[in-house]
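Summary of Year 1 activities. Much of the first year was spent building the evaluation harness for sequence design. The harness presents a backbone, in tokenized form, and records the residue chosen at every position. We chose the following record to illustrate the format because it has been used consistently in internal testing since the harness was completed.
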């Protein structure tokens, strides 16, 4: 059942209004990973709640309790649960999204203010933090609701919503909420859900839409080396004491090779290598080495072989070094020996890896490598957050509906991909609700999620809103 023409016409006619709503959302700096922005995440929850209510959605804000971040106890932002439609003859689809964003500073290298949406008239880019990850896609669902309300059109399915404000910081509290709602059975918020749809990832390139049936898991570590009671003068104490930064760099250099091999014993080995048949799956995707190099802005692909690059991103684990807290990083040439430094790194996990299996290997390895340094400094290893990988059955009607919707809107066959990023709650939905989960991305591979100058193309926002609406019609029309 295709979406009615008046729905898609409404989306086109209201594009500028929808972009203004995206600008309003981007203007709230809802950074979950920075304690000083916690109130902004709450403000964003309230703003989104107001929008949903005005579009006819019944909502409840759920208190997720408290957590500790950087040694500070903080109130978690509320999750938003929403519902519209209760027709037993219709399917019920649960929509998930997150309204928090990654940190962003103009000084990181942004060309414009990160929390002011800039509409580049020449390129059609909507530039601002959260435009593609994940405020644009969340607003895509609001656009669908608004079109139906304004046109007096009945939604083809019942909808349930679950929006959170902590996805970029480990989705704290959300698993417990989903489990407790599921345990309530028929009284629970997710009762009767037939499938889940998440729009929170990206096409492989800038031209071919995709549907995504897998996500990598993640385990994030903080390794702290400390020794002196205070920062030291390197002229007075260099070569006289064990230096925390020297120890930390030695440890960090033993985690991964420049070509991506993970050096923590047992981690890479957990994953069986791909056979020729599996490699062909990757070779057949619409992707080239130029796509990855264009997306990152440098000729730095890890291999000239497309399948190797794609498998590195989708079906193999990876270890990335993210930063060092406590190190001198300013301009000038300060001759300091930092007293305490913390290295941050994470490992993206794929089946059959889980944090439970991988984390003990990381702890054991770092401790044994630190012992080899014969340093008198102190080592502390913490896992800050983790989540399991997820893979779905893409032969399900949920995917069939999304394929039909993509063909209708983009006149193209979508690629079937696995995503290199992580959305920890996906597996919880799949397991707790026992239903199929689909990832239906809105943005392109070069959007720069988590990076400087994050953008969503205007056409992806507008056609993507049509795609989300059309998917609901196609899902309604398919027999379960
Ligand atoms: C794919 C999704 N849009 C995303 O960006 N997820 C984050 C989740 C995360 C976990 N720790 C910090 N962020 C990601 O994959 O990095
Ligand atoms: Zn993200
Ligand atoms: Zn996201």
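For this record, the design step produced the sequence shown next.
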């Amino acid at each position: 059942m295709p979406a009615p023409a008046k729905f898609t016409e409404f989306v086109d006619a209201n594009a500028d209004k929808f972009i203004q709503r995206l600008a309003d959302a981007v203007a709230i700096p809802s950074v979950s990973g920075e304690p000083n922005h916690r109130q902004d995440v709450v403000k964003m929850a309230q703003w989104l709640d107001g929008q949903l209510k005005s579009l006819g959605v019944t909502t409840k804000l759920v208190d997720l309790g408290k957590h500790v971040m950087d040694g500070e106890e903080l109130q978690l932002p509320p999750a938003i649960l929403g519902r519209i439609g209760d027709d037993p003859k219709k399917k019920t689809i649960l929509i998930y999204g997150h309204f928090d964003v990654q940190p962003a500073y103009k000084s990181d290298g942004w060309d414009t203010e990160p929390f002011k949406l800039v509409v580049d008239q020449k390129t059609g880019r909507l530039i601002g933090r959260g435009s593609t990850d994940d405020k644009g896609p969340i607003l895509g669902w609001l656009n669908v609701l608004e079109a139906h309300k304004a046109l007096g059109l009945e939604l083809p399915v019942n909808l349930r919503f679950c929006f959170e404000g902590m996805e970029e910081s480990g989705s704290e509290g959300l698993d417990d909420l989903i489990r407790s709602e599921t345990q309530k059975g028929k009284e629970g918020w997710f009762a009767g859900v037939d499938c889940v749809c998440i729009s929170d990832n990206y096409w492989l390139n800038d031209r071919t839409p995709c549907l995504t049936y897998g996500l990598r898991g993640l385990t994030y570590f903080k390794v702290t080396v400390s020794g002196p009671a205070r920062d030291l003068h390197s002229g007075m104490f260099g070569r006289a004491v064990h230096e925390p930064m020297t120890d930390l760099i030695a440890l960090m250099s033993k985690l991964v090779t420049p070509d991506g091999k993970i050096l923590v014993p047992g981690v890479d080995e957990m994953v069986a290598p791909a056979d020729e048949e599996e490699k062909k799956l990757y070779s057949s995707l619409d992707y080239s080495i130029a796509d990855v190099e264009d997306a990152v802005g440098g000729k730095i692909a890890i291999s000239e072989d497309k399948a190797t690059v794609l498998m590195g991103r989708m079906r193999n684990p990876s270890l990335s070094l993210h930063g060092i807290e406590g190190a001198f990083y300013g301009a000038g040439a300060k001759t300091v020996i930092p007293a305490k430094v913390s290295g941050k790194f994470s490992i993206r996990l794929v089946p059959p890896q889980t944090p439970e299996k991988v984390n003990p290997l990381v702890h054991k390895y770092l401790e044994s490598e630190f012992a080899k340094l014969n340093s008198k400094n102190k080592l502390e290893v913490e896992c800050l957050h983790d989540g399991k990988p997820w893979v779905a059955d893409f032969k399900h009607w949920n995917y069939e509906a999304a394929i039909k919707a993509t063909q209708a809107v983009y006149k193209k066959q979508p690629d079937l991909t696995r995503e290199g990023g992580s959305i920890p709650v996906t597996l919880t939905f799949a397991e707790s609700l026992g239903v199929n989960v689909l990832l239906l991305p809105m943005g392109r591979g070069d959007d720069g999620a988590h990076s400087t100058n994050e953008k969503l193309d205007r056409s992806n926002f507008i056609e993507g809103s049509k795609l989300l609406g059309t998917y609901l019609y196609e899902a309604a029309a398919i027999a379960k």
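The first helix runs from residue 5 to 13. Quantitative recovery figures across the full test set are reported in Table 2.
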